[in-house]
Amino acid sequence: MASEIGPGATDVVAVLNSQHDRARAILAELHESVAVVAELTRDMAGPFRELVQLLVAHEAAEELVVYPTLKTELEEGRLAEARMAEEHEAKHLLARLEKMAPGFFDFPDALAEFETKVLAHAEREEQTVFPLLEQRLPPAERQEMAKNFLYVAAKAPSHAHAHSLESAVGNAVLGPVLATIDRVRDSTHPHS
Ligand SMILES: [Fe+2]
Ligand SMILES: [Fe+2]
Q1: How far is the CA of 162 from the centre of ligand 2 (A)?
Q2: Is the residue at 67 inside a domain?
Q3: pLDDT number for residue 186
Q4: Could you tell me the pTM of the whole model?
């Protein structure tokens, strides 16, 4: 398993394992809180949808049936306008909540799915990729890779995007970083 080797590590496999362990630790930390949130949001989704349906229909019917009567028959125009202005504001807020709701309700399950996938991926890398690096590359090359890996990791974008690094967007994002690796190599190994 991975050792506690930080950025000072010289072997790329040690760096990779160290970051895998850190990711596992953060996911474990999130796991507990997200499980609690998942339970709460599951209880909230139904009532929220019911509330939206009820209020949207209620306000629409009030506006068409109650307030016109208040205005004309009862001649309470100012009162009607004041209450309708409140409804207008409430409708805006409700629309905003409705827009936020899918992300809010789906986040716990989406994170759980991500956790499962990324943990399995890390394990497969550790079982199938890292042993090859250790068996088939000389230590000096693994040290070189560690430097390049940490250099790229430090320059890489800090937000996920759905494009692969092979895509045009991926290349636009990381291309300049990758292009500088050779320059780093030259500066760190002027005689090689
Ligand atoms: Fe109302
Ligand atoms: Fe990995």
Answers
A1: 17
A2: yes
A3: 57
A4: 0.70
